Amino acid sequence: MQSSREQHMDALDHWDTPYECDTCNASFRTQTGCNNHMESRGHWANYCSPCQRQFDNANNLKAHLNSRVHQGTKISCPFCKRTFAAASGVSHHLEGGSCKTAPSFNRENIYRFLRHKDRSGFITNNLLEWRQGETWSARGNAWNGTGYECYLCHRHFHAIADLDRHLKSPTHMQEIYHCPKRPCGTQFKTLAATLNHLESESCGFIKFGGVQSSVGGILSGQQRTI
Question: pTM to 2 decimals?
């Protein structure tokens, strides 16, 4: 039998509700009640309702929502029309020389092209010494007895082919781009890495969708900056 106090609390809903929903303003008397609410509404923090997946943090959830799982492959290469989930994918495709329609496009040519368009240095670095086309190749004498050693960073690799891929990657290349937002200004070695940074929205300069709508014009020369 309820006491007068309990009857009053029930009638006027005066019970304390310390357990709050991660997403909406609802609160509950018990953690179980709160969990049931969030489970039924998909209101868990960092939760993707369509996929019924929870993520460790907001950045991981955002990356998931911006991936091909939810975005599809809506961004196309301006030359071969191959589709990608994000602008950074198109850039990586071109910088790596993978576009069969534009085989002359690579990291160096894209930088030179964009630098010519970007005279104010909005996103490209004005390099006093531009080491265009500088590459290294792995040789047998890189073996030091325990592995193939990169003479630049002294990292060891089990196979010479792995060392060769490392040397031909942007790892030891110049930083030729930067984030246009001040005071962020993070430096990057490839356009793909620059776009990936902007797509993450980590510095708040531009939204993911804004990067996607700009990349085609930038790479085709019809648009100067993001």
Answer: 0.65
Cβ distance 43 to 23 under 8 Å?
Answer: yes
In 3D, which of 130, 128, 166 has the Cα closest to residue 147?
166
Helix 208-220 crosses helix 191-199 at what angle (to 10 degrees)? 150
Half-sphere exposure of 90 (CA within 13 A, CB side): 28
- C-alpha dist (Å) from residue 172 to 88, 136, 151, 165, 169: 20, 10, 11, 12, 7
Q: What are phi and psi of 92, to 5 degrees?
A: -60, -40
Rounded Cα distance between 129 and 173, Å, is 12
Cα separations in angstroms, 145 against 9, 48, 152: 78, 50, 18
Report pLDDT digits (tens) over 35-86.
787 777 766 667 777 777 777 777 787 777 777 666 656 788 889 999 888 8
Rounded to whole angstroms, the Cα distance separating 159 from 145 reads: 12
**CA 85 distance to own-chain centroid:** 11
- The set of long-range contacts for 178-185, using a CB threshold of 8 Å and a minimum separation of 24, is 178/123, 178/124, 178/125, 179/123, 179/203, 179/205, 180/122, 180/123, 180/205, 180/225, 180/226, 181/205
